[in-house]
Design goal:
The chain contains 18 helices and 6 strands. It is an alpha/beta fold.
């Protein structure tokens, strides 16, 4: 890493402050990263020339805690806090945050420096080579034939099936095509297909498939929703198209077609210690509402793409599972939640007073957030500490979002992900049906005419 003296830094800062060039132009002229130039300018504005001098400081735990508390109280970013306290590496403040969140004040106390002595690596085990010199010619020929047969089967199978788990019908078709060149017994063993199943599939080839139209309908719904629907939602969608069918039939045919709904992982954590004031758990896991804008839940989740992060903050209405409003940001700053809350409050009628439930994340404990709720006379509710089940409805949405959208696609940039999230949330609100909403989408359910 190149080291720069204070005279060089001062010359770069003065060039920027002269106003003729922006950060990117100045950094490009001197072969620097524009984020480094930004830091130098902040240091100079906060501390003058002394902010550009080399500094070697070990911070006591008390100082670290006071820096963190000041950052939280004043809603500052890590870079702003580092410039204010003349801390040369803004990243170290995030390290302090994580350590404090993990183990409290004791984690901020400096540990002895130096690398611990490592244990000597175990010597590698000698490779045992298979001795083929004593094997018979017939044995070797049989092994070669088996490998050729296995290779032919594995090459043929992907051309017939795009799913990771091919159906028995597809396996039987491959065996049938290869049986002219290889023994049937060996092919059935490679395909892990019972002989009776193979001949049963062969007998079906001469019969008309009475489910042919239904299979096409199932596959069309599955592909239109990009594998997000399981057999229950597909059954509902097929019934809405006018076909009367039992869900067990759809489940069985999806198995024959090798179609399977995709699954979910998790999650960003926002708790950063005892910051601000926590609210009582007013929701008490009562996740059902009798009308729109009675009960809202919110949280923040994290996405990682191409070495960058994107954070999503939505508000969900428990009446119909609709996303009322959302905001995205590449950093989990207070503006992410503050902007989201303003969008959500703007959609309320004057008489609406929903409970707004969240976890105990630092954003929801900020005075600015709680002030907006008081001004609108909304009741704030928070989950108990360390209990994700108290906000299970929001956790469920994040699970669906990631399994149906994020993990099914590849993104080359955060901007691509951001645009995709906007499209998916519109799809989730307006098109994606829910079984508990009588097979309707959230918006369709909310706007349906009331029964007489």
């Amino acid at each position: 890493m190149t080291k720069h003296d204070e005279h060089f830094k001062l010359r770069v800062v003065q060039q920027y402050l002269a106003g003729a060039s922006g950060y990117k132009t100045v950094s490009k002229q001197h072969g620097l990263d524009d984020s480094m130039v930004r830091r130098w300018v902040k240091w100079f504005e906060a501390h003058g020339v002394n902010g550009l001098k080399k500094k070697f400081t070990h911070y006591p735990a008390e100082v670290k805690l006071s820096v963190l508390q000041h950052m939280w109280d004043n809603e500052l970013s890590g870079g702003q806090t580092a410039a204010l306290f003349n801390i040369r590496n803004p990243g170290v403040i995030r390290v302090w945050e994580r350590e404090y969140q993990r183990a409290g004040f004791d984690a901020l106390i400096a540990r002895p420096r130096g690398r611990p002595k490592s244990m000597p690596a175990a010597p590698p085990k000698p490779e045992t080579k298979r001795d083929d010199s004593n094997r018979s010619k017939e044995d070797l020929q049989a092994e070669v034939e088996h490998l050729r047969m296995e290779n032919a089967y594995l090459k043929k199978l992907p051309s017939l099936s795009s799913s990771p788990a091919p159906s028995t019908a597809e396996k039987a078709q491959v065996v049938q095509e290869l049986r002219q060149d290889h023994p049937i017994a060996g092919l059935l063993k490679v395909a892990q297909l019972p002989r009776s199943t193979f001949y049963y599939q062969q007998s079906l080839l001469g019969k008309d498939d009475k489910y042919d139209g239904l299979k096409r309908a199932i596959k069309e719904v599955y592909e239109r929703h990009k594998g997000r629907y399981g057999y229950r939602r597909i059954t509902c969608a097929v019934r809405q198209a006018g076909e009367q069918v039992n869900h067990k039939t759809v489940q069985r045919l999806m198995g024959v077609l090798g179609l399977k709904s995709l699954v979910r992982p998790k999650k960003y954590r926002s708790f950063k210690g005892e910051v601000g004031q926590a609210a009582a758990n007013e929701l008490q896991r009562e996740f059902k509402a009798q009308a729109a804008n009675q009960k809202w839940v919110t949280d923040v989740t994290e996405f990682s793409v191409a070495g960058e992060k994107l954070y999503l903050s939505p508000v969900l209405d428990l009446y119909n599972g609709e996303i009322v409003a959302f905001e995205m940001n590449q950093r989990p700053v207070f503006e992410l939640v503050g902007s989201m809350l303003k969008k959500a409050l703007a959609k309320l009628a004057p008489e609406d007073r929903p409970i707004l439930h969240s976890d105990q994340g630092w954003q929801y404990r900020m005075p600015a957030y709680q002030r907006q709720l008081r001004e609108r006379q909304l009741v704030q509710s928070m989950s108990r500490k360390g209990n994700c089940h108290d906000n299970a409805a929001m956790e469920s949405f994040f699970g669906v979002l990631k399994s149906e959208f994020f993990y099914l696609n590849k993104f080359d940039s955060v901007d691509t992900l951001r645009a995709g999230l906007v499209d998916y949330i519109h799809y989730y609100n307006h098109e994606r049906i829910k079984l508990k909403l009588k097979g309707l989408s959230p918006v369709h359910y909310r706007t349906q005419p009331l029964a007489a």
